[in-house]
């Protein structure tokens, strides 16, 4: 049987104290429960990581406001945040560091390239981890501790591959990726889906996640006369790439995944962003079940939410709901509850996991830059 949890129900199950019973010493006597977090908080991906972290912090604040109890004792959730710098080697060191801090669960890491090596560290410790990672490999390792916040690249790549052939009428497609676990994984799935839908991949090129000059790649692609160009990578690269597409005279629109569907891409690409297309998991934020209220409350504390903010929020509330339902912060006791959970979240009305830790339900929204802004083209249910 699935363990049902909504935000309100979870804390009822946690036997929250009525506020009138809370004395002056209640807050100080509450047992601290540490929640680990890791993401890039410096460098070119810091805007992703900070928006993600703020979503997590809002969830902790909301949980603590309800005066939760676990095991008959008041608890207070606190964040232990670490900067993994989007670097795989640093990520494993960070994973050990947050474990040493005495955490009860982990939200993160952000990148697939950091989440995958860190997941081995957490798995060895039996520590549940809800990551933003989208690479298929993250949940294909056989670990019982790995869970996703977003749909996988298999879902996103397949949706976009079908979309460009069936809806955009593209037949000749060029594909570029940044050779990261995320970028290459997304591009691989897109490549497969294009071919399955009857399209042709006329060029497959790669770069790095540090590159800024793509002229040699684009010169090679230009001779193939593609209808569209797909890029698997972050906005730090897709922004300059969009500009160089225009400079070299390539008229094919740029397509990409959720890490391009950002305001940073619009700033970096400038006028060259016009006509670019990108996918993002789930519904537009203002159309999410809890989106409007989340946006209002997030703005009051942190300013404009980033695209990953509501996913960080939901992941944190789910982790806490599992602890409350199990009436324990011990990983071994609440992990089975987490694996079987159904949660009414901000991003979706029912969030649950399959046997591997992938989201059981999901959808993709496709966006296009029109007049310098991201506009919805289509939402595709999965």
Automatic annotation (TrEMBL):
SUPFAM superfamilies with a match to the protein in the record = Periplasmic binding protein-like I (SSF53822)
Which CDD domains does the record cross-reference, listed alphabetically? PBP1_ABC_LIVBP-like
Cited Pfam families: Peripla_BP_6
Q: Which UniProt keywords apply?
A: Amino-acid transport, Signal, Transport
Superkingdom of the organism of origin: Bacteria
Q: Does the keyword Transport feature in the UniProt annotation?
A: yes
- Keyword DNA-binding in record: no
Domain called Leucine-binding protein: residue spans: 33-372
The entry's family comment says:
Belongs to the leucine-binding protein family.
Name under which the protein is recorded: Branched-chain amino acid ABC transporter substrate-binding protein
Q: What is the lineage of its organism?
A: Bacteria, Pseudomonadati, Pseudomonadota, Betaproteobacteria, Rhodocyclales
């Amino acid at each position: 049987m699935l363990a049902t949890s909504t935000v309100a129900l979870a804390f009822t199950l946690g036997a929250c104290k009525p506020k009138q019973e809370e004395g002056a010493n209640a807050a100080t006597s509450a047992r601290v429960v540490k929640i680990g977090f890791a993401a890039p908080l410096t460098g070119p991906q810091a805007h992703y990581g900070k928006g993600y972290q703020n979503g997590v912090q809002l969830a902790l604040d909301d949980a603590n406001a309800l005066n939760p109890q676990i095991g008959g004792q008041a608890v207070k959730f606190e964040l232990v945040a670490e900067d993994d710098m989007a670097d795989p080697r640093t990520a494993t060191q960070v994973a050990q560091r947050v474990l040493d801090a005495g955490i009860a669960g982990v939200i993160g890491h952000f990148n697939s390239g950091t989440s995958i090596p860190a997941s081995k560290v957490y798995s060895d410790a039996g520590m549940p981890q809800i990551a933003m990672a989208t690479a298929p490999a993250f949940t294909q390792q056989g670990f019982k501790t790995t869970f996703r916040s977003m749909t996988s690249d298999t879902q996103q790549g397949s949706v976009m591959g079908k979309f460009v052939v069936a809806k955009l009428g593209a037949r000749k497609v060029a594909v570029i990726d940044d050779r990261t676990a995320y970028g290459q994984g997304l591009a691989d799935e897109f490549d497969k889906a294009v071919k399955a839908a009857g399209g042709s991949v006329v060029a497959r090129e790669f770069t790095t996640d540090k590159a800024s000059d793509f002229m040699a790649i684009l010169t090679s692609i230009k001779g193939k006369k593609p209808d569209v160009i797909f890029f698997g990578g972050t906005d730090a690269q897709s922004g300059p790439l969009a500009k160089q597409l225009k400079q070299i005279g390539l008229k094919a629109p740029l397509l990409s995944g959720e890490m391009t569907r950002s305001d940073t891409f619009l700033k970096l690409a400038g006028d060259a962003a016009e006509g670019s297309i990108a996918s993002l998991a789930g519904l537009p934020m203002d159309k999410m079940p809890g989106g409007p209220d989340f946006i209002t409350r997030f703005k009051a504390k942190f300013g404009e939410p980033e695209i990953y903010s509501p996913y960080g929020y939901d992941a944190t509330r789910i982790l806490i709901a599992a602890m409350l339902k199990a009436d324990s912060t011990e990983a071994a006791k609440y992990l089975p509850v987490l694996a079987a959970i159904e949660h009414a979240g901000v991003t979706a009305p029912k969030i649950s996991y399959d046997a591997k830790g992938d989201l059981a339900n999901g959808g993709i929204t496709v966006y296009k830059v029109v007049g310098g802004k991201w506009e919805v083209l289509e939402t595709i249910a999965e």
